[in-house]
Amino acid sequence: MIALGGASILGSSRAGAGEGTDPAVRSSLEVVGGALPDKSIGRAEETLYVYLSMNCPSCAHFHAVALPELRRTLVAEGRLRIVYREFPLDVRAFAAAMLVRKAGDRYFDALDLLFAEQAGWVSARDPGPTFRRLLAQVGVDREAYDATMADRPLYEGLSAIKDHARRLGVRGTPTLFVRGRKVEGDLPAAAIAAEYAVASTRDPRDRAVEAAPGGER
């Protein structure tokens, strides 16, 4: 399905909720890992970083449930920017991430489609037909699809994002960085909103973030 080589599935143990990072790691969150630009929603000084894999059920749940609520509230109010970064857990997720990137400005539309039909293409013997049908809706035709599967710079760009995430301590998905603190699991929108409602003068290391259970590893 993908001609550029495999991507290993990362096993990991679940870290403590709200696990902190040192100042150097918090600062490095602002650095884009590799040549690919960040995909983001909203404009604000506060940023929520979300590392996800397209084959992760908990990522799909976060995208379908928490993200719309955050967009309706914090993002619409100009209080939060949300950055999505890819952390593909296997070869199929890598292919999906490459195709979603190919959608360009319709990146989040493509995510909507692939997450909505995740169960089908994840379990399919050949996900190609489903990928082609869904991506055609966001302008990725058959020729663009074939070219994407052989796009080494794109593959290497996603690999660089994943490598950068590993250096930040990401081991599974979804992993969120809330005010610079690592949280593993499908965190509800209400818990995220509560964190960003806290006065900005308060040290984020003094706050506890309760992570929801679950998460593809």
Could you explain how this protein is built, in words?
- The structure is a single chain.
- The chain is of the alpha+beta class and about 220 residues long.
- Helices cover about 45% and strands about 10% of the residues.
- The chain is built from 9 helices and 5 strands.
- β2, α2 and β3 form a beta-alpha-beta unit.
**What is the helical fraction, as a range of percent?**
40-55%
- Given as residue ranges, the uncertain stretches (5+ residues, pLDDT < 50) are 1-21, 199-217
Based on CA inertia axes, which overall geometry fits? globular
How large a portion of the residues is in β-strands, by DSSP E? 5-15%
Major sheet description: 5 strands, mixed
What is the element layout, followed by pairings?
Blueprint lengths: L22 H6 L10 E3 L5 E6 L4 H19 L5 E6 L4 H12 L4 H10 L1 H6 L4 H9 L5 H7 L3 H16 L7 E4 L2 E4 L4 H9 L20
Parallel strand pairs: 2-3
Antiparallel strand pairs: 1-3, 2-4, 4-5
Task: Name the descriptors.
globular, 43% helix, 5-stranded mixed beta sheet, disordered N terminus, 9 helices, alpha+beta, 217 residues, 5 strands
Task: Please provide a brief summary of the model.
The chain is an alpha+beta fold and 217 residues long. Helices cover 43% and strands 11% of the residues. Residues 1-21 and 199-217 have low confidence and may be disordered.
